[in-house]
């Protein structure tokens, strides 16, 4: 769900409000419908926001009048040259201010002050760390770009109290070095704070692995290796990141592995680390079929750990009889499940799942690859009739075709012969393979040692792995964790830590958005409030003195509604 700005004319006036919109699928494609109209601010609430902006309510910022009152008395009024009133020095305010509000909500600034106490440095490292995290959330870029371009164009010098000339690339790099040793303390604090704020349960832990690639050789970084790239950049070295999240997608912790580490080899290590950090408790671990191996299953059972894990596609062959039976249970439109006992009589339970949308997708893929192989083999056959090819050459060409179209390769039985130095090719289709492929299209298998859950509950828990996948998408798109330009190992780990902290702020806004009834898409909220700017208002007086005040631009009607819904009070002015 997401929000959409709307307007309405009433009594000749234009009124603004928000509509909560839901996207859903139909047989004719995706559609949208309005779930609720969020309306305008009520008059009483509007007056409350106004009083807070005037300094009569509680606010994290010091509210100022148009003319500050110091010890010296000032006149009640002055004569202003209205013809020369001007606005100067417009700065980005909404994004950094909102990020700082989220940081204070999580008490992240208090933790950084505690674990990174000020020493002899000119600017406290805890403040510089906030610069890195806020910049990663608002405008992800390099430390050099932050120092030379972004920081001075924002309100962060006023919000954090760090002058622009004190922020430069080397100081930001050193801030990365100072932040990294506190990774575990940060994860523990955020886990406890998020659990308190949003009443989170950590009984189900979702684990997934992704990769991010480097630009450069990374010769001195032993973790930078070539491996399976989720970014389709096999030409670059990479590292793998294993992320643990709760069932609502709230991050619990992460670990960084070598770029050539297989997913299945990370499972035991991440489980051990999280148990040592937070205890075993009564948790259920959930992973996709890439995490499944006999060693991992034995490891989980040896420690009496509970798990829900995807089974390999080949395991479906053992459940052919169950696939043919009709005792499926429909748990939602287009999805059926069935609980089965372990084929070897073990303690595990298997859950067969059959999805209509997935079946249509896999059928289309099989048909497409079958046509592709047919066309390629026909070209080879025609080529063999025109000129002489050796059997070895045709075998290599056939092998390449099958490798590129592996989804339907098992359907074809190809025979290559060579007579009098001329190769010939023939093929036939294995209908038994087609029958089995048709039967298991759209089907997948889960395995678990959880005994007191229904098949629907087990499937619902497994499908929450999409939350971990969504976390990786946000890391790579909105927070731009890739590519990594750092070459040193510690700087790479620090870069990933800053991205993790920025993602925690993102998820905090996401939970606040849901609680406020604004849908589950924080991106629109952040973009809308990020348009609020900070300006210098210059008032020339009759005496020739310019009165300069740094003021926050008045929010639009839409922005005011969002602020009221989120319980945020926008300051009118801040002291420079």
Relative strand content: 15-25%
Q: Rounded to an integer, what's the Rg over CA atoms?
A: 30 Å
User: What is the CATH class designation of the domain at 200-308 and 449-487?
Assistant: Alpha Beta
Gross geometry: elongated
Number of strands: 17
Structural class: alpha+beta
The largest sheet, given as strand count, sense and whether it forms a barrel, is:
9 strands, mixed
Q: Report the CATH architecture of the domain at 200-308 and 449-487.
A: 2-Layer Sandwich
CATH fold descriptor of the domain at 200-308 and 449-487: Nucleotidyltransferase, domain 5
Q: Segments where pLDDT lies below 50 for 5+ residues?
A: 52-70
Q: Could you give the order of strands across the largest sheet?
A: 7-6-5-8-9-15-12-11-10
Show the helix and strand layout.
Blueprint: E1 2-10, E2 13-26, E3 29-39, H1 43-53, E4 86-92, H2 94-106, H3 108-115, H4 125-138, H5 143-150, H6 156-160, H7 169-179, H8 183-198, E5 204-213, E6 238-245, E7 251-258, H9 267-278, E8 284-287, H10 294-302, E9 306-310, H11 320-324, E10 329-332, E11 335-341, E12 349-355, H12 356-386, H13 391-404, E13 412-419, E14 422-429, H14 431-440, E15 443-448, H15 455-463, H16 465-477, H17 489-515, H18 522-529, E16 533-540, E17 546-552, H19 557-566
Parallel strand pairs: 5-8, 8-9
Antiparallel strand pairs: 1-2, 2-3, 4-16, 5-6, 6-7, 9-15, 10-11, 11-12, 12-15, 13-14, 16-17
Explain what this protein looks like in three dimensions.
By secondary structure, this protein is α+β, with helices and mostly antiparallel strands. Among the domains are: 96-193 and 488-529, no CATH class; 200-308 and 449-487, Nucleotidyltransferase, domain 5 (2-Layer Sandwich); 358-440. Helices cover 41% and strands 23% of the residues. It has helices at residues 43-53, 94-106, 108-115, 125-138, 143-150, 156-160, 169-179, 183-198, 267-278, 294-302, 320-324, 356-386, 391-404, 431-440, 455-463, 465-477, 489-515, 522-529, 557-566, and strands at 2-10, 13-26, 29-39, 86-92, 204-213, 238-245, 251-258, 284-287, 306-310, 329-332, 335-341, 349-355, 412-419, 422-429, 443-448, 533-540, 546-552. The strands form four sheets. Strands 7-6-5-8-9-15-12-11-10 form a nine-stranded mixed β-sheet, sandwiched between helices. A three-stranded antiparallel β-sheet has the order 1-2-3. A three-stranded antiparallel β-sheet has the order 4-16-17. α7 crosses α17 and α8 (183-198) packs parallel to α17. The longest helix has 31 residues, at 356-386. The protein is elongated, with a radius of gyration of 30 Å.
